Amino acid sequence: MQVIAVNVGDTIPSGAVRVYKIRWVILFLFVLYSMSNAFQWIQYSIINNIIVRYYGVKPTMVDWLSMIYMVTYIPLIFPASWYLEKKGLRMAVLIGSCGTMIGSWVKVGSVSTDRFWVTFLGQCITAVSQIFILGIPPRLAAVWFGHDQVSTACAIGVFGNQLGVALGFLLPPAIVPDVDDMDVIGYWLSVMFYGIAGLTTALFVAIIFIFKEKPPTPPSTAALIQEEAGSYFQGVLRLMKNPGYILLLLSYGMNVGAFYAISTLLNQVVLVHFPGETENAGRIGLLIVLAGMLGSIVCGFVLDKTAKFKLVTLLVYIMSMVFMLGYTFVFHLETLWMVFVMAGLLGFFMTGYLPVGFEFAAELTYPEAEGTSSGLLNASAQFFGIFCTMADGQLLDSYGDMAANLLLVAVLFVGTIMTASIREDLRRQAAHKTAIHIDNNGPQV
């Protein structure tokens, strides 16, 4: 981010920082763009049994349609973060939106029982495109929003991804029927593919004409005094020498990786205990994410008002572990409504944790570029997501869902200990306090 460099204690001229109303339009457009990509991550796994029947592949191959998002992210996040830092928000979002659109149209051509490779190709393209999505919220929030809105804006940005996952849980089971007639399945898969292709095309056109790189003036004092961090790779090295960030990097990956595993295997776990309940499997996933969306907004608001970053992060992590334990055992009560209740409580904290981790990282690593710190967090999440999903899949096949879910409880327990060990060093908050001559938000135009 190119900003005006000033020294701590300098008199900051009036009007040097300002927020603009168009920031909400920019954020809303990003939310829709993120939603359109995240929807496609889970659209196959939540109807795993139907996709297996239609294409004649093993369930593991359908799981890979989800895991390909994780596999492609890890090696590509480094060049993507470098590109975001050097070329800025607009170019990164344009490339990601274009790739999401192209991948969506490729899937339109995959509606035939012998074209699993085509749908896999389309999924690979959309998976690569997500590298220009997951790390954007904290950067967009810092570039466009004032210091007392930045956590809320980041939470809303993450909200787009969660909304897409929620719709990915809800719509595929509602659109594609669980029947034996392949022609019927193919027709409704086509409807779903054309719908998302049309939406991504409209969003790409809107981004071309509306999405702006940055406002004319910085939105906060922290943005104004943020120093140039040097090269991208020097920034990564500095992050690797930050012990608090390393602990957060690992604990964040564990929490989000566990969520990825739960989401990918949800259809299979639900059908073990409740045969024929494909639609309810989608609804359970929907509830997890909707509750998480509420949790994200609540946590973002609390962070903006209290700046208690470590306390909020630790409490959310502990509650994620507690309700993961409850989620593990509730399936064996064989009562569907209780599964819904426990899934909602788990989702509130586990997926509500996403923006909390982003914002805590931004505080611990300031003045490093937000896209770099969040990009590495997401790489960690993808790594642990692959591990948790593959390990859980093996445990599910060999020992059942209780063993699989207990592994996730153990992962979250380790993550909780790591989170408790982080020393709270709120560098960005300290930067805000250096402004003594102006209101950090400035006038709104």
Features:
single chain, 445 residues, mainly alpha
Give the SSE map.
Layout: H1 22-42, H2 48-55, H3 59-87, H4 89-108, H5 116-129, H6 136-144, H7 150-175, H8 182-210, H9 221-225, H10 232-240, H11 243-273, H12 278-306, H13 309-330, H14 336-350, H15 353-365, H16 370-399, H17 401-420, H18 427-432
Helix pairs in contact: 1-4, 1-7, 1-8, 2-3, 3-4, 3-5, 3-16, 4-5, 4-8, 6-7, 6-16, 7-12, 7-15, 11-12, 11-15, 11-16, 11-17, 12-14, 12-15, 13-14, 13-15, 13-17, 15-16, 16-17
What does this structure look like?
This protein has 445 residues and is mostly helical. Helices cover 76% and strands 0% of the residues. The chain has 18 helices and no strands. It has helices spanning 22-42, 48-55, 59-87, 89-108, 116-129, 136-144, 150-175, 182-210, 221-225, 232-240, 243-273, 278-306, 309-330, 336-350, 353-365, 370-399, 401-420, 427-432. Helix 1 (22-42) runs antiparallel to helix 8 and helix 11 packs antiparallel against helix 15 (353-365). It is globular. The model is unreliable at 1-12 and 436-440 (pLDDT under 50).
